[in-house]
From TrEMBL, chain A:
Pfam entry (one): PRELI
Name of the protein: PRELI/MSF1 domain-containing protein
InterPro entries xref list: PRELI/MSF1_dom (IPR006797), Slowmo/Ups (IPR037365)
CC per GO annotation: mitochondrial intermembrane space
Species in which this protein is naturally found: Pygocentrus nattereri (Red-bellied piranha)
Domain PRELI/MSF1: 1-173
UniProtKB/TrEMBL annotation, chain B:
GO BP term, example: phospholipid translocation
Keyword Transit peptide found: no
Transmembrane segments: none
Naturally occurring in which organism (per UniProt): Pygocentrus nattereri
UniProt similarity note: Belongs to the TRIAP1/MDM35 family.
Official protein name in the record: TP53 regulated inhibitor of apoptosis 1
Any one cellular-component term (Gene Ontology): cytosol
Keywords (A to Z) from UniProt: Disulfide bond
Reactions listed under catalytic activity: a 1,2-diacyl-sn-glycero-3-phosphate(in) = a 1,2-diacyl-sn-glycero-3-phosphate(out)
Gene coding for it: TRIAP1
UniProt-recorded Gene Ontology molecular function terms: phosphatidic acid transfer activity
PANTHER family to which the protein is assigned, alphabetical: TP53-REGULATED INHIBITOR OF APOPTOSIS 1 (PTHR46403:SF1)
Length: 215, 80
């Protein structure tokens, strides 16, 4: 199992962040998110909002994984995001995980957005994630890949949320959109490349040796 | 230009219903819910129409959302 933890401050107020949370798709960093649907929603007796959202995302496997797991190529990834908004405590908690391709790799994430204690006009975000794979012999390579992709997606997710905030409320810094998209894509590409190299190395170490072909 | 693009529903025929509902919800969420206003939710009819469409699509596509535990496995969190 690989895990990830981060804590960051979003320089927008909690109510702006919670509104933007529902409106962050589509954004320039979310081209891999294909559909978005609320599949359950209700307000509890104590005025908390409970929501379940279904997302479908493209299943972008690195080439070494495409070769070893061709059956997983065809279907997109279904992701379920559960959330609780508590305006009383100014907090938003989320729990997100993939529903399919789970044997190959399961990514689970918990987030808590909360009005920043030190800076009430900001919002603190604590994010935890776990990556596991049950595939015999490949799990380490897959977990490396999964964790690297999660980190890259996490960068995109923050950029996407900031983009939504900027568009909704004119919050945060004014940054030239194209430059930031390019910068974020570059960072994501670098991280993915580094992870691919690491994972490729692990995968070929795990794979059975192919007999030499003599033409 | 991105401001005018919206997400699609997983049910191809449900996208319009989804967008109408989302618009209603986003307004209610920011202007009423977050401010503690307990007046009625104006989006219930729109939500029903949207759900009827999307739940049908989910069944047709065999998307395994039934019985999935809300907020995941129960974690004992002291003082949370």
């Amino acid at each position: 199992m690989k895990s990830f933890f981060s804590e960051t401050d979003i320089k927008s107020s909690w109510d702006h962040v919670f509104s933007a949370f529902w409106q962050r798709y589509p954004n320039p960093f979310s081209t891999h998110v294909l559909t978005e649907d609320v599949v359950y929603r209700s307000v509890t007796a104590d005025r908390r909002l409970i929501t379940r959202r279904l997302l479908t995302k493209t299943n972008r496997l690195p080439r070494w994984a495409e070769r070893f797991f061709p059956a997983n190529l065809s279907r997109s990834v279904y992701v379920l995001e559960d959330s609780v908004v508590d305006p009383g405590s100014k907090s938003l908690s989320t729990y997100t995980r993939n529903l399919n391709h789970a044997t190959l790799m399961t990514v689970t994430e918990r987030c808590v957005f909360r009005e920043s204690a030190g800076h009430p006009s900001w919002t603190q975000l604590k994010r935890e994630a776990w990556v596991t794979s049950s595939v015999f012999g490949f799990s380490r390579a897959i977990q490396e890949f999964g964790l690297a992709r999660f980190k890259s997606n996490q960068l995109k997710a923050m950029k996407g949320l900031e983009y939504a905030l900027a568009n909704l409320h004119g919050d945060g810094q004014q940054w030239p959109l194209r430059a930031s998209v390019r910068e974020a894509s570059e960072k994501a590409r670098e991280a993915a490349l580094a992870a691919t190299e690491r994972a490729k190395h692990l995968a070929s170490a795990a794979a059975p040796q192919k007999p030499q072909q003599y033409v | 230009q991105e401001l005018f693009l919206k997400m699609n529903s997983v049910g191809e025929g449900c996208t319009e219903l989804k967008r109408e509902y989302d618009q209603c919800f986003n307004r209610w969420f920011a202007e009423k819910f977050l401010k503690g206003d307990r007046s009625g939710d104006p989006c219930t009819e729109m939500f029903k129409k949207y759900q009827s469409c999307v739940q049908k699509a989910i069944k047709e596509k065999d998307i395994p959302i039934d019985g999935v535990e809300f907020m995941g496995p129960n974690k004992e969190k002291p003082g949370s």
